[in-house]
Amino acid sequence: MKVILPYLMLIVILITSCSKYENFAGYEDTSEDELSPLTLASSKTHSTIEADLFEIINDHRASIGLNKMKFEDTSYYYANLHTSYMISQENISHDKFTNRAENIVKRTGALFVAENVARNYETINDAFNGWMNSSGHKKNIEGDFNYSAISIIENANGDLYFTQIFVKS
């Protein structure tokens, strides 16, 4: 299974579109492997806007007969790292997705990990609608996942950046 996992994650990257912007390479390695579970973000740091988008997505899932996903702390930690990285690059990307997914798998025992990213949507409803109008993003939102986390961070110019990580365990 460990041999197949990197290939599955690569397939998700290739079939999942990012948004209306180009990707930017260059995500630097971090010392994530050295972090203890105690340093990971908790649900207490989940913002209201993130919780609201999470609820919109879960309400959509429920409306089409899917399970509601549960918030997952480790994914939130990695989503926040990636959202901050995208802001530092002033672009959206799935850079180093394989590393993020592998770290989530190591910490949670996940079977499969996927992600959606976006920027420059003025509201969470706009972001949700943008994802739903993209086949790759919609596939993740409506996928066979039981855990998720969303990071939304505003840059210095007031632009919102989004990372949602989906976990199947």
TrEMBL record:
Domain of life: Bacteria
Name of the protein described by the UniProt record: Cysteine-rich secretory protein family protein
One family name in Pfam for this protein: CAP
InterPro entries for this protein: CAP_dom, CAP_sf
SCP domain: residues covered: 55-166
